[in-house]
Amino acid sequence: MAIDWGARRIGIAVSDSGTIATPHSVLRNEGDVVEKLAALARQLGAETIVVGVARNAPKFHDLAERLRQKTCKRVVLWDEALSTVEAAEQLRAGGRKRRDAQRDIDMHAAAVILQSYLDHTGGAS
Questions:
Q1: ∠ at Cα 37 (6, 35), nearest 5°?
Q2: Cα 35–Cα 58–Cα 111 angle in degrees, nearest 5
């Protein structure tokens, strides 16, 4: 499971095969988000949680640690550089209208992050 953390929305992606990342959903960034993410990880049977990290943003380390404590799962911080840009390009190339693309961009960015992680690790979690 991968997370693209945003101020208003959190994109979620998954990989059933350990090879291909798939956009899953978007959560609003409000309330006890760590509990919501932990519950979703349990529901999905996630073995590893990949958190997309913007450079020089210590808040992600805190989020990762809270998720690790809440889920007892492996939590990996992964560079999210240009994930939203790449996701937007993929959506446009797929013929998505701008409004529809904006609504789904976060989960597609999470899929870009997860795919990068899977490609780098060979799918090992």
A1: 115
A2: 60
Tokens for 49, please give them: 């949680």
Tokens of 75: 């939590």
Q: pLDDT class for 124, splitting at 50, 70, 90?
A: low
Q: Please identify, in words, the CATH class of the domain defined by 2-121.
A: alpha beta
Tell the residue number behind the tokens 């959560």, with chain if given.
Answer: 27
CA-to-CA dists, residue 107 to 5, 67, 69, 72, angstroms: 10, 19, 24, 24
**Residue-wise pLDDT tens digits, 87-123:** 888 888 888 777 766 778 899 999 999 999 999 998 6
Reference 110, options 9, 31, 18; nearest CA is: 9
Predicted confidence (pLDDT) per residue in 20-65, tens digit: 999 999 999 999 999 999 999 999 999 999 999 987 677 888 999 9
Amino acid letter, 31: G
